[in-house]
Design goal:
about 210 residues, 3 domains, zinc ion binding, Znf_RING/FYVE/PHD, 3-stranded antiparallel β-sheet, alpha+beta, elongated, Herpes Virus-1
Length: about 210
């Protein structure tokens, strides 16, 4: 894992000396080679596994390295902003406290929605998103009790047999599934014959009226 991608809180005169010679981030598990160069432990291991990268960095894979204990302690105390400060988090504190405590519980940390919309949502808003906002959440039709995705709900209502429907002629409200029989059996059928509402209705009315 490369170095800490965190922003120092305020000015820090020695910040350049605390950066990895490879990834240029704040050193993680700092080590130092015989030439005095500092690396993240993982960056060093990656560099010596590639002759081209080792050559580019000017290092000898066989040289001795040492844990830089003093620098590790300095980095632990480094004043930093939360990694989610651009999302609105106002936490500030020591780097060690950020990594060991705050990072895991920060409400501004974004996580990918698990329902399928692929959006990254701040942790503090994730529960609401998955329960009330995600188009891939499961909802139940209030009329027929079918379960479906929220994104399909409006289309479902246009065809749901139990959804309320108002007759355009007598203005009676009824479930959509009863509309055909209503048109055939009620007095408003005489108006429908003139309007051409439905071929089946027209045929029934034509025969019934003895036209």
């Amino acid at each position: 894992m490369p170095g800490y991608d965190l922003k120092v809180n305020g000015e820090y005169a020695r910040i350049e000396s605390l950066e990895c010679s490879s990834c240029r981030l704040i050193l993680r598990d700092a080590i130092q080679n015989e030439e005095g160069q500092r690396f993240c432990k993982s960056c060093w291991e990656e560099a010596i596994s590639s002759s081209s990268k080792a050559q580019r960095l000017g290092i000898n894979p066989k040289e001795e390295i040492y844990p830089d204990i003093a620098v590790r302690r300095e980095i632990d105390r480094l004043p930093v902003l939360c990694e989610n400060y651009e999302n609105g988090c106002e936490w500030t504190g020591k780097l060690k406290d950020h990594e060991h405590d705050h990072k895991a519980i920060c409400e501004y940390k974004t996580m990918r929605c698990a329902l399928g919309c692929s959006k990254r949502i701040p942790l503090g808003k994730l529960r609401k998103h998955e329960k009330e906002e995600c188009p891939f959440r499961q909802v139940r039709c209030q009329y027929c009790r079918s379960e479906l995705l929220a994104r399909d709900y409006n289309d479902h209502l246009l065809n749901c047999p139990n959804a309320p429907y108002i007759c355009g002629h007598c203005h009676t409200e009824m479930p959509r599934s009863e509309m055909d029989s209503h048109m055939l059996l009620n007095n408003c059928r005489r108006q429908l014959y003139c309007s051409g509402w439905h071929p089946q209705v027209n045929l029934y009315i034509f025969n019934d009226l003895g036209a």
